[in-house]
């Protein structure tokens, strides 16, 4: 289908998010070390808060770098009736066929949504409830996924 285009879009999205995280981390680091952030009283916590923010942004940077590396190493293999759904496959549930919606089982970037040639695609990971329900399954298999307080019951209509 459109897997290579999809991977390129995901990588571009992750690179943009990485750049944003780097800028945010730089700003937070500057705020934490700025002369204006020096505590004037024991209750002044601006520098401490900025330090925590910088640390959190640094963690996000590592997560985006790991996600980019995972997509660069991802081998797109065709669906096999012997092994079932695996990383790199596009999956469509029966209830989504009219809406032309697909799920992409990727190594990272869960929740990322895009459109390619009129097809809506949502990235899920193997660790998500939907990813766990789909991994190793085959076309026409039933799935049942608990989503919040609800439950999704459907069957796999197509895999690419």
Question: What does this protein look like?
Answer:
The protein is of the alpha+beta class and about 160 residues long. About 40% of the residues lie in helices and about 20% in strands. The chain has helices at about 5-35, 45-75, 130-135, and strands spanning about 90-95, 100-105, 115, 120-125, 140-145, 150-160. Strands 3-4-2-1-6-5 form a six-stranded mixed β-sheet. It is elongated. The model has no long low-confidence stretch (mean pLDDT about 90).
Provide key terms for this protein.
alpha+beta; elongated; 3 helices; 6-stranded mixed beta sheet
Strand coverage percent: 15-25%
Strand order of the largest sheet: 3-4-2-1-6-5
Structural class by secondary-structure content: alpha+beta
* Structure summary, number of beta strands: 6
Give the CA-CA distance, first to last residue. 7 Å
Shape: elongated
Number of helices: 3
Please state the average pLDDT score.
89
Fraction of residues in helices?
40-55%
Low-pLDDT runs of 5+ residues are none
CA-atom Rg in angstroms: 21 Å
Query: Could you state the oligomeric state of the chains shown?
Result: single chain
For the largest beta-sheet, the strand count, sense and barrel status come to:
6 strands, mixed
Q: H/E element string?
A: HHEEEEHEE
